[in-house]
Amino acid sequence: MVDLIAANPITSMPEIKQLLRNVAIIYSPSTNCSNHEQYRQICYVPGSDRELPDQMTAAESLQILHLAARIQRLACMCLHSMQQKFVTAVEDSQGPLVAAKAAEPTSWMEEFRVYWVLWHLQHYSAFVEVSKARWAWPKDYIEDAKENFTTLNRVPRILTEQVWTVSAILADMGLRPLYGHPRSLPPSFREVKEEQEEESSKAGWTFNQYFGAARLPLFASLALPPNHHSYPVWSPPPIPSDNSRIERNWQRAPRHRMKETFASAMIRPIAGRTHQYPGFAQASQDLRYGPDEEIHSNSGRGNH
Length: 304
Description:
- The chain has 14 helices and two strands.
- The chain has helices at 2-7, 14-27, 36-43, 58-94, 96-102, 108-132, 139-147, 149-152, 160-172, 192-195, 204-211, 245-249, 267-270, 280-286, and strands spanning 177-178, 218-219.
- It has a two-stranded antiparallel ribbon with strand order 1-2.
- Helix 2 (14-27) packs parallel to helix 6 (108-132), helix 4 (58-94) packs across helix 6 (108-132) and helix 6 (108-132) crosses helix 9 (160-172).
- Residues 282-304 are annotated as: Disordered.
């Protein structure tokens, strides 16, 4: 199984390998953590190279493989759904020629970001499930852990909005997220839907900016929806070279995967919410195509 993970263009990335390790540790019957710090000490071992635990049973290995296969299906469903909305938005604003380009296969960066979100959601779901059941943590302690989960498990605040966007796509497919919000949220910032743990009308980064790290949406189950067979499934594209001029210029190379870059906004345009932003026409081109494309013959990077 280690070879399969290492050969995959997504799971071979250190951040995904760490999440795989965390999920495997959580689901292992031999793991029994009395608090969040003990859990972190087991998962984030210096020098472990973020590999899966050494002594996994055949059943535990099979469980991780099944989870990885399900995450791949969910990623393809999300990417397909988001791209269809993106193509529609591009066609409405720029016409069929550009829409045809927008319908081309998604980039490695786009796919990595969606897989990264899904593995974080799986990690969070597993953590909450096991801490309640097998570890039997007190309710208040679990709430504290949920409040600080993004910080303690190294979810960059600049990418929180992408977590919320992918979660919204999953909700459109029939999965049911609970949107917990910081307990420090003042009454003037609250909405009725926030009290009911529904998606807020406010962007995820507003919670980060004013009230610390926003909670991740909690999915009690990430089981495939009944209509999953109607979506295409494909393997992730190869990892692009960090030295590729186009990928480097537009910050879509692997080195930029966890940074706030031009590419970090891709999830938002693909999700079909671009009408809220000025300069959509330029951004939709710049984020998906390199400057060498014919369609960019009269545009440059000066607008960024």
